[in-house]
Design brief:
Immunoglobulin-like; disordered N terminus; single chain; 4-stranded antiparallel β-sheet; mainly beta
Length: about 300
Amino acid sequence: MRTLMMTLMMAPACGANEIRTQAEESHDDRRVSGVFPSHDAMALRGDISVQIVLGEEKIGTLPNVTIIGTNDTWNPNCTLDETGKWATCNPVQDLPRDQVFDIEIGLQDQNPLRVSPSSEFPLSTPGYLINTNSNITHFGADASTADRVGEMFRNSDIAVFIHDYSNEPGNYTLHAGPVDIKDNGKISVRSPGLTFVKDIIVHEDQSFSSTKQNVFMPIFVDTGFVQVLIHNCRVTGRFDGGSIRGLKITGDIPALSLVQLAAPLGPAATFVLGSITLDVDLDEDGEDDAAFFSLVSNAPRMGVVQY
């Protein structure tokens, strides 16, 4: 599989400084912009590194994180990036299976955040492979960047799962994450799990939609998946027999998240960031500080194995 570095290496580097500047200077009035893994994430697998994206009020605050399982408690140490906005905690290795975890995040005030992801995964949840018949139509303002990232995405096996979907209209939860395709053609969830989480409404005609919210989406970079924070994410599509037709995921990737996306590439990150043209002004200060993202796919239903 071609890496992000290889597919974008020929891109110009002139925009990298702009993105890094916006990562430092853009504003988010919320206390916290995002927590990974998010509340209701499922099927956590392998080593899990808690990540916290801080809003304006808490820039520079080092979070105090506690993960509480059924029989164990972990207190991973966390560090801040150079902007003081993105905290990454030491990974907890091999979280136990079939448990719900309480993650408490202290921010040096009286209101700790709490999220409750799990390592559980019910076999009744159908899965749909979204990468093989996909196209990234936007990744910032430059169409050639969308084409390059789309080529990379098609080589990264990612599936969406609809928890307890019963072919009936109603409220459901959509999860997504990386998967392995087994020799028998079925799929199994791989690390870090189903960490993309969206509440959806399925309508009478089997179409579905969601409200806007911040989510983390896995994107493969070099040798592993990076969790990319997407603001104002929406998901739409329609169930059609054995597939999801016209699946569409859109949202705004802030400059801060773009820097995190490119970070695993070391010196080559400059080339990656230089290929992206910002086209969204999230903080409405007159300067673009995010890249609009749009993915479309026709996703076939796949057999699922739990482990």
